Amino acid sequence: MHCAIQNAEALDGAHLMQVLWQDGTKSLFPAVWLRDNCQCPDCYLDSAKARKLLLEALDVNIGIKGLTFDRKKVHITWPNDHYSEFEADWLKKRCFSQEAREKLQRQLFLPECQYWGSKFQLPTLDFEDVLKDDEQAYKWLSSLKKIGIVRLTGASDRRGEILKLGKRIGFLYLTFYGHTWQVQDKIDANNVAYTTGKLSFHTDYPALHHPPGVQFLHCIKQTVTGGDSEIVDGFNVCRKLKEKNPQAFQILSSTFVDFTDIGVDYCDFSVQSKHKIIELDDKGQVVRINFNNATRDTIFDVPVEKVQPFYAALKEFVDLMNCKDFKFTFKMNPGDVITFDNWRLLHGRQSYEAGTEISRHLEGAYADWDVVMSRLRILRQSVQNRN
């Protein structure tokens, strides 16, 4: 960033520091925040990038006793003669102006979202390139964050390939179905995905209070007829629902719905959760969709008069997903791996015929968004340093 300090002074009875930058802009920093974030070895463990200063030891009404500066640093003395210094770049990055805060949040969380519908061009990269090349891996994860889905081609047609993707990002998300799981027709199936029937649009695992953020599906064997994959950009559908029927949007974003999943797989399980189907953040933005019709519980914890309006709202949401303007259909081939945002996309599958032997086999796994974003930030730094 290489910012240069033109002037720095204490204001407001020494409870604020104002910095005038070389470019003519100004930043204000509260004294209590500066003291809390002292970077000296007594207050900060640089090897862990973690604060050592205890909040119990912080005077929340502290003022600046002495202040000097040069172009690159501010030097502060506190009332007990503790000494802190702050680099210009470090301060400028953490400026409290709304513009600076929004810029930093964008850098940290990459909130850009590219909506799409039925005319979607599915982003595609080579599986081995993603495993071996940081620029390709960065392209994979940044596209996954922005668009919600990326197809990787060229994996082998045997089990274990998505374990390699798990290692590439860090680690996979263990659930009651195991580290990985096999999507194929099974006798006495413990999940509707393990049948040959049509799967309607859903997100995976809303029966968990923290559903997995990212899903990997690797095609090992594909049936000749049927079994096509269907996806829809749930955030785009939510945008349309809010525009078309605000009341339905309000019902789905405020009503808690019960989800359940009971059975035996990796171990025995009896899972219960409550989610709003459309989950909003404090700014009213859609951040997650929680919907799986198969695991939506028969228990519904709402007053009786709210039941029918809820069903009407949900039916409108599902009808919109299935509208030709939003739905994208494609067929996975052996060696394809689709990686997608399970909080944003809803996915489904067309039915296919059962045979005497397994005719369709996908291996699946999950990852947590925290793990994916961690790798994305590290890859971004690596790619930027290289360029």
From TrEMBL:
CDD domains, per the entry: CAS_like
EC numbers on record: 1.14.11.1
Key word Oxidoreductase present: yes
Function (record text): Catalyzes the formation of L-carnitine from gamma-butyrobetaine.
Keywords: Carnitine biosynthesis, Dioxygenase, Iron, Metal-binding, Oxidoreductase
Pathway in which this enzyme or protein is active: Amine and polyamine biosynthesis; carnitine biosynthesis
Family annotation (SUPFAM superfamilies): Clavaminate synthase-like (SSF51197)
Domain (Gamma-butyrobetaine hydroxylase-like N-terminal) ranges: 15-91
Cofactor(s) required, per the database record: L-ascorbate; Fe(2+)
Recorded family membership: Belongs to the gamma-BBH/TMLD family.
GO biological process: carnitine biosynthetic process
Protein name: gamma-butyrobetaine dioxygenase
NCBIfam families per UniProt: carnitine_bodg
GO MF annotation list: gamma-butyrobetaine dioxygenase activity; identical protein binding; iron ion binding; zinc ion binding
Start and end residues of each TauD/TfdA-like domain: 117-366
Enzymatic reactions: 4-(trimethylamino)butanoate + 2-oxoglutarate + O2 = carnitine + succinate + CO2
This protein's GO CC annotations: cytosol
Protein origin, superkingdom: Eukaryota
InterPro entries on file: AlphaKG_dependent_hydroxylases, GBBH-like, GBBH-like_N, GBBH-like_N_sf, TauD-like_sf, TauD/TfdA-like
